[in-house]
């Protein structure tokens, strides 16, 4: 886990950078030469990778680490794409998207191709849902979140209550709009096994799809879900190495099930360490992580911000 200086409001972006620069000066030999595991060794660095932020706020150091990891895992012979995961139209804003691309350009992390916007790709996701519906692999669910939580006996690896299959077994409430869930048991019967995945520099990782239960693939509010969208997008963009934070590692089990059901190619995966503040919280918009745009406006150099991202990637997770 890599711990970054604590922050609050006001001019803390400047104080954050000054504190971090002091750490860099003390540990420069450790921080300044990051390369993804395997480059120059077993991994050739010719992957197609992607950095896929959600524009619900401004970019911060955690984003920089993720983009840098994807860019460097692609290597000089590979390709690195930026994908905008903006299906949540109530939280995603155009100003955040614009700032995202300004920051990436300034940092030298621009995409090798025009970005894919999930909000413009809805027909693709709906086609995947129709495929699964026609094979009776998903079913409508009208249970509320409160009802799901009240009946749940276990939680999934992300901490959410595991659905007990009420609507699959007894039918839903016809007076409520449904969401759509994957029938995990039926899906695994179709596949014939529980798929795992290949993790870069680690090898085969056994899957644990049953630990998620019947996950939601189509939400009530915008008709799709993260699991469905990223699986379709990675296949359509021919991503060969999925790079992302370690907090999403467990969800790979679900994505591998969807890849097999939809006959998508299997990429390899590389999950990188996360950045935490001094209170042990993952850097995020909700914890008021300093924005890259504010650092830039306070005169922090792009090179120093890249070093901060490298320091996160050097941590042990």
Spell out the blueprint of helices and strands.
Blueprint: E1 2-4, H1 12-26, H2 28-31, E2 48-51, H3 61-74, E3 79-84, H4 94-107, E4 116-117, H5 122-134, E5 138-141, H6 145-151, H7 166-170, E6 179-182, H8 184-191, E7 197-199, E8 203-205, E9 216-218, H9 226-236, E10 241-245, H10 252-261, E11 268-272, E12 275-277, H11 292-297, H12 302-314
Helix pairs in contact: 1-12, 3-12, 9-10
Description:
With 317 residues, this protein is α/β, with parallel strands linked by helices. Helices cover 38% and strands 14% of the residues. The protein is built from twelve helices and twelve strands. It has helices at 12-26, 28-31, 61-74, 94-107, 122-134, 145-151, 166-170, 184-191, 226-236, 252-261, 292-297, 302-314; strands spanning 2-4, 48-51, 79-84, 116-117, 138-141, 179-182, 197-199, 203-205, 216-218, 241-245, 268-272, 275-277. The protein has a three-stranded parallel β-sheet with strand order 2-3-4. Strand 2 (48-51), helix 3 (61-74) and strand 3 (79-84) form a beta-alpha-beta unit. Helix 1 (12-26) crosses helix 12, helix 3 (61-74) packs across helix 12 (302-314) and helix 9 (226-236) packs across helix 10 (252-261). The longest helix is centred in the first third of the chain and has 15 residues, at 12-26.
Mean pLDDT level:
88
Radius of gyration: 20 Å
Range of helix content: 25-40%
N/C terminus separation: 4 Å
- β-sheet strand percentage: 5-15%
Count all strands and give the number. 12
Annotation field: number of helices: 12
The side-by-side strand order for the widest beta sheet comes to 2-3-4
Shape: globular
- Can you tell me the residue ranges where pLDDT is under 50 for at least 5 consecutive residues? 6-10, 22-42
Helix/strand-derived category reads: alpha/beta
Biggest sheet character: 3 strands, parallel
């Amino acid at each position: 886990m890599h711990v970054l200086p604590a922050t609050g409001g006001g001019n803390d972006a400047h104080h954050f950078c000054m504190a971090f620069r002091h750490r860099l000066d003390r540990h420069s030999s450790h921080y300044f030469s990051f390369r993804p595991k395997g480059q120059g060794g077993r991994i050739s660095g010719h992957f197609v990778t992607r950095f896929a932020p959600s524009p619900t706020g401004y970019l911060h150091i955690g984003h920089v680490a993720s983009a840098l990891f994807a860019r460097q895992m692609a290597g000089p012979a590979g390709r690195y794409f930026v994908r905008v995961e903006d299906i949540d139209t109530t939280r995603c804003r155009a100003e955040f998207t614009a700032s995202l691309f300004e920051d990436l350009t300034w940092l030298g992390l621009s995409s090798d191709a025009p970005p894919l916007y999930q909000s413009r790709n809805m027909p693709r996701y709906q086609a995947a849902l129709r495929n699964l519906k026609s094979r009776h692999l998903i079913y409508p669910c009208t249970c509320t979140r409160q009802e799901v939580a009240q009946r749940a006996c276990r939680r999934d690896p992300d901490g959410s209550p595991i659905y007990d299959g009420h609507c699959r077994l007894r039918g839903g409430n016809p007076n409520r709009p449904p969401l759509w869930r994957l029938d995990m048991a039926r899906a695994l019967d179709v596949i014939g096994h529980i798929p795992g995945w290949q993790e870069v520099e680690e090898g085969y990782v056994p899957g644990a799809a049953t630990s998620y239960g019947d996950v939601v693939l189509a939400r009530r509010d915008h008709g799709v879900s993260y699991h469905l969208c990223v699986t379709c997008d990675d296949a359509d963009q021919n991503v060969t190495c999925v790079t992302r934070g370690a907090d999403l590692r467990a969800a790979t089990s679900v994505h591998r099930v969807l890849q097999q059901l939809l006959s998508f190619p299997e990429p390899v995966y590389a999950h990188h360490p996360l950045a935490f503040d001094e209170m042990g919280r993952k850097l995020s918009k909700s914890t008021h992580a300093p924005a890259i745009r504010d650092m830039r406006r306070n005169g922090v150099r792009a090179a120093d911000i890249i070093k901060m991202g490298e320091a996160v990637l050097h941590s042990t997770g």
